[in-house]
Amino acid sequence: MNYGMPDFIGEFWHYYIAIITVISIVGIIWFLKSQTTRKLAAGEQAELMAPTWDGDLQELNNPLPRWWLYMFYFLIVFSIAYLVLYPGLGKFAGSWSWTSADAYQQEKARVDAQFNAQFQPFLGMDLKAVAADPKAREMGERLFMAYCSTCHGTDGKGAKSSRLFPNLTDNEWLFGGGDPEAIKASIAYGRLGEMPALGDAVGGEAGAKELANYVLSLSGKPHDTNLAAAGRAKWAICAGCHGEDGKGNLAISAPDLTDQAWLYSGTESGIMETIVKGRKGGMPAQLEHLGEAKVHLLAGYVLSLSASK
């Protein structure tokens, strides 16, 4: 999209681009005219450009057809008119001050107005009512397929990789415990969850192994008792975010480590990787992009997917 030339480029490049463009147009006009104005005198034979081949085939330097020249000149005039009306000469915005960004916003507003007429009736409904309404769920599903399925999957069950795309069909929630308004807030304003790399702070792989076994003990999973005891002494490094009891702090997206829900991996090796390398996940804000009505329908659909509805 044409958002205009960034300020940091400076005035030099504005004039450089504009001058090069103008010189190019003038040069094309001069070259075209210089190569097409000479006419053959009476009886003069056109210049032979290549030897005769295949018996009698010859390439002669005859003038170009007039219709072709007129079309070429028309395109030159068109390009000049375009540069006067639209941006193309450096920072010159054109007499119409058109930008693709404005055109996009106008088209988006037009399309949104059409679709919002269908979505608007559901905006005033309670999210649980939206989740229970068959028509609202159908519309929400189409929105989910268009905007959310790339990360969370077409079935909403997500994917686990170097970045987290959580399962939206279970009853485990990092934010808000499945509260409808919390789901809507996640979609509208986004979420950010980050675990810093602590490998050096805990003593490398050996320290991470001890701490991982202590974390396993918090959730009642099988663990090495001796390693967990050694990891308990290192827990102060983690308690600032996850709390002394390991139950986390949702205000800073630090998860509860005492339950059976794991964002990435609940194995010893997976927890060690999280401790040593850290994690960084996030949900981008969608309100500005989608608008209130679409966000409301999406929140209702996600709520309908969850087992906690």
UniProtKB/TrEMBL annotation:
Subcellular location: Cell inner membrane
Transmembrane segments: 12-32, 67-85
Binding site for heme c 1: 148, 151-152, 283
Superkingdom of the organism of origin: Bacteria
Keywords, sorted A to Z: Cell inner membrane, Cell membrane, Electron transport, Heme, Hydrogen ion transport, Ion transport, Iron, Membrane, Metal-binding, Oxidoreductase, Repeat, Respiratory chain, Transmembrane, Transmembrane helix, Transport
InterPro entries: CcoP_N, CcoP_N_sf, Cyt_c-like_dom, Cyt_c-like_dom_sf, Cyt_c_oxidase_cbb3_su3, Cytochrome_c_Oxidase_Subunit
List of residues binding heme c 2: 195, 238, 241-242
One Gene Ontology molecular-function label: metal ion binding
Any GO BP: oxidative phosphorylation
Any one GO CC term of the record: plasma membrane
Family indicated by similarity: Belongs to the CcoP / FixP family.
Function: C-type cytochrome. Part of the cbb3-type cytochrome c oxidase complex.
PANTHER family: CBB3-TYPE CYTOCHROME C OXIDASE SUBUNIT FIXP
Subunit structure: Component of the cbb3-type cytochrome c oxidase.
Name used for this protein in its record: Cbb3-type cytochrome c oxidase subunit
